[in-house]
Design brief:
Elements (H helix, E strand, L loop, with lengths): L1 H11 L25 H4 L3 H16 L1 H9 L1 H16 L8 H4 L3 H7 L5 H9 L4 H14 L8 H13 L3 H13 L5 H13 L3 H13 L7 H13 L3 H13 L6 H13 L3 H13 L6 H13 L3 H10 L1 H7 L1 H12 L6 H9 L9 H13 L3 H13 L7 H13 L3 H14 L5 H13 L3 H13 L6 H13 L3 H13 L12
């Protein structure tokens, strides 16, 4: 026991204990954005005064207390009104006046004692600094009749983590332990705080201390947090070790366990393990929920498993269409990379679900490639024009080759020439193959002077002539019967060091 306690304090802090009565907010600038005033929330001070009177009468009436004990909704309703009053306070204002008026103290004494404080902290989570001030006030009022609850400390630790004040979270944990409060929910809260702030090693250390604590032992929630820690770091071997530890214990998987493991395998692109975990859910007592299906939809999209992606999409279609734009983008990406016969139709149907203000440059680039591969030159050029207008710069060779291939298949050399001029001006990545394609197309149309002019364009952008450049010119002259010019090109090849014995038949 002494060893566990010693390790606990060494882990959490190494400097003097922080006083919880120290003000958590010194400047309004450190708080979250302004919140609606009391008027906009639809209540007034008179209504709050009436509420306080009702709470005081309730606490003085034993029969009413018994009814409130049986029904927590009455307490929740009263706490909700107090939370609205506190949220209406300007940034930086001390909430002690509202809390010290008697209403909160009366709420705390309603059974179960202290429940009102836990509920209030939950309702103030949108303003964590304010919630921490409330916690400080509540701790100052704690006595033997209404002692601090582990859940209150757990909420406070989580709130400190939301403000990215991990030192305060550790100090709150230490203070709870010093007060004789040592519950697994405190460990879980501190682990979550470290996890969300990217402190992986500290989160794991807290779990190790929890395992050594004789008064506590990890719950499935603890293991779920540990799975999340490993999943965020793509430590797949540790994930599987943790799952095995759960199997070896008396604990049972929850929906969070499955979803966390699936998310980790998805992040690591381990599609077989992701599918295996999902199938075990289908065969076991814990069935997939909407979150599971959304994860699987993402995984199927990333792995280009269109058949399963479409089946899963049908199950959560309404949810995805209304609120899951990233998943819509993922499905669009999957279709553009596939050889699905109706991929253009499917992509265009999904694009209609995305509002115009949700513009993603990378989606536009994928659609340009899609239309280029499908030889849909008008649609491709429409998106290219939008890309130029939005100053999108394409640097991927594959995208550029798809574009020029589309122009080549459609024998649209003038359109290709216009595109190259715009790409040059817009700063898109240029390739020698762009100019070679234009030369080939000019040669096929017997526009030899324009073909020769491309050499000057290449020179302007510092693309030297290669053997392929000369062969394109030779073939153009030879096929039009201009043998002397073709022979001249062969001579130029030798002059630039690109000639070989196979070219001698021309001379």
């Amino acid at each position: 026991m002494a060893r566990t306690k010693h390790g606990l304090f060494l882990l959490l802090h190494s400097r003097r204990f922080f006083s919880l009565h120290y003000p958590l907010c010194r400047s309004p600038n450190t708080l979250s954005p302004s919140y609606p005033t009391a008027a906009t929330r639809g209540f007034c001070s008179d209504g709050i005064s009436d509420l306080r009177d009702r709470i005081l009468r309730l606490s003085e009436n034993p029969a009413s207390v018994s009814a409130a004990s049986a029904d927590k909704e009455a307490v929740r309703s009263a706490v909700s009104a107090l939370a609205d009053e506190l949220l209406a306070l300007p940034d930086g204002q001390d909430p002690a006046v509202s809390l010290g008026s008697g209403s909160f103290d009366a709420l705390l004494r309603l059974p179960p004692a202290g429940f009102a404080s836990v509920e209030l902290l939950s309702r103030l989570k949108s303003r964590p600094l304010l919630a921490l001030q409330v916690f400080n006030w509540r701790k100052g009022q704690a006595d033997a009749e209404i002692p601090m609850l582990p859940e209150e400390y757990s909420k406070a630790i989580t709130l400190a983590g939301r403000t990215k004040n991990v030192d305060l979270a550790a100090e709150l944990f230490s203070h709870a332990v010093a007060d004789g409060i040592r519950e697994v929910c405190l460990y879980n809260a501190l682990m979550s705080t470290y996890m969300y702030n990217g402190l992986t090693k500290k989160a794991i250390s807290v779990f190790e201390v929890l395992k050594q604590d004789a008064k506590c032992k990890p719950t499935i929630v603890s293991y779920n947090i540990l799975l999340s820690v490993f999943g965020r770091s793509m430590l797949v071997e540790h994930i599987e070790t943790t799952l095995q530890a759960i199997n070896d214990s008396e604990l049972s998987y929850t929906i969070t366990t499955y979803n966390t493991a699936i998310a980790a395998y998805l992040t690591a692109w381990m599609w077989d393990k992701m599918e295996g975990m999902y199938q075990s859910m289908l065969e076991g007592p814990v069935k997939p929920d909407a979150g599971t299906l959304l994860l699987m939809l993402r995984g199927y999209a990333y792995s280009n498993n269109l058949e399963k992606m479409e089946k899963t999409y049908d199950q959560v279609k309404e949810m995805v269409n209304n609120r899951q734009r990233p998943l819509i983008h993922a499905m669009i990406c999957a279709y553009t990379k596939s050889s699905h016969p109706d991929r253009v139709k499917r992509v265009e149907a999904l694009m209609k679900l995305i509002p115009d203000d949700d513009y993603k440059p990378w989606v536009t680039v994928l659609l340009i490639r899609l239309y280029a591969q499908e030889s849909m030159i008008e649609a491709m050029e429409g998106l290219i024009s939008k890309a130029f207008q939005r100053h999108i710069i394409v640097t991927t060779a594959g995208i550029m080759r798809s574009i020029i291939s589309n122009y080549f298949r459609n024998n649209a050399v003038d359109r290709l020439a216009g595109f190259i001029r715009q790409a040059e001006y817009a700063g898109w990545r240029l390739f020698r193959s762009l100019y070679h394609c234009k030369m080939v197309m000019y040669g096929q149309q017997n526009r030899l002077e324009e073909m020769h002019g491309v050499l000057d364009e290449m020179k302007n952008f510092r693309f030297s002539r290669t053997r392929k450049t000369f062969l394109i010119m030779y073939k153009a002259y030879y096929n039009t019967g201009r043998r002397p010019e073709a022979a001249t090109v062969i001579g130029m090849m030798w002059k630039h060091g690109y000639g070989n014995d196979e070219d001698a038949f021309v001379l």
